[in-house]
């Protein structure tokens, strides 16, 4: 089921999230939790018990408030900087290994791409995002542009600065840009704060409905 958070505009650009949006969040959460626990021990020298407590805290946040929980924000709040997190994640996390090609996803995004440009905005590194996109069948070429952690720098989602990078490079005003993601607070609200709109989905099974809605709006505008 989708949740449309519109502004009355016809989209000239659609920005997609990656984790939990283009593949199921279940393939993401436990792997990320394990890597974060290991990072506490190896980089901060904490005890295994402390690391377990921290990952339990994050797991509970994911369970009760998935829409508002950002792993990047969590590690930053616990003393890691963005570069440190990305380097460790790149070395120890390989979400792509557990994924497979999704023909429905490929078809739906191709259908939307015929009507309006689509881009990807993710807090993943470019190499990690590319590996995931290749595995699910889209490839980086499935999008007009791919924006990764290397592009957003010190302003990763949920910072609106990540969306400002996309808008500036694509030359599209926020008011004509829509975001599609599985977490309202992380993927939708930062763009809405700039004047944009969005559609919240529970995962890839909802993308057909989101695409139908966006195509309808684009053709009206």
Automatic annotation (TrEMBL):
<protein>
    <submittedName>
        <fullName>FMN phosphatase YigB (HAD superfamily)</fullName>
    </submittedName>
</protein>
<dbReference type="Pfam" id="PF00702">
    <property type="entry name" value="Hydrolase"/>
</dbReference>
<dbReference type="InterPro" id="IPR023214">
    <property type="entry name" value="HAD_sf"/>
</dbReference>
<dbReference type="InterPro" id="IPR050155">
    <property type="entry name" value="HAD-like_hydrolase_sf"/>
</dbReference>
<dbReference type="InterPro" id="IPR036412">
    <property type="entry name" value="HAD-like_sf"/>
</dbReference>
């Amino acid at each position: 089921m989708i949740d449309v958070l519109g502004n009355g505009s016809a989209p000239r650009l659609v920005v997609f999230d990656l984790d939990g949006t283009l593949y199921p969040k279940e393939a993401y959460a436990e792997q990320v939790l394990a890597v974060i626990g290991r990072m506490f021990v190896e980089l901060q020298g904490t005890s295994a018990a402390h690391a377990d407590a921290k990952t339990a805290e994050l797991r509970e946040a994911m369970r009760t408030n998935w829409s508002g929980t950002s792993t990047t924000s969590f590690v930053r709040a616990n003393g890691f900087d963005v570069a440190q997190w990305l380097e460790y994640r790149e070395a120890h996390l390989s979400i792509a290994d557990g994924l497979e090609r999704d023909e429905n996803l490929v078809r739906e995004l191709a259908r939307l791409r015929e009507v309006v440009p689509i881009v990807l905005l993710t807090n993943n590194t470019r190499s990690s995002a590319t590996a995931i996109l290749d595995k699910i069948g889209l490839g980086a070429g499935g999008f007009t542009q791919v924006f990764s952690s290397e592009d957003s720098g010190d302003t990763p989602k949920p910072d609106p600065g990540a969306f400002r990078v996309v808008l500036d490079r694509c030359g599209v005003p926020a008011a004509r840009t829509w975001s599609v993601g599985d977490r309202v607070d992380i993927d939708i609200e930062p763009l809405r704060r700039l004047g944009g709109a969005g559609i919240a989905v529970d995962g890839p099974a909802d993308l057909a409905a989101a695409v139908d809605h966006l195509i309808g709006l684009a053709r009206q505008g």
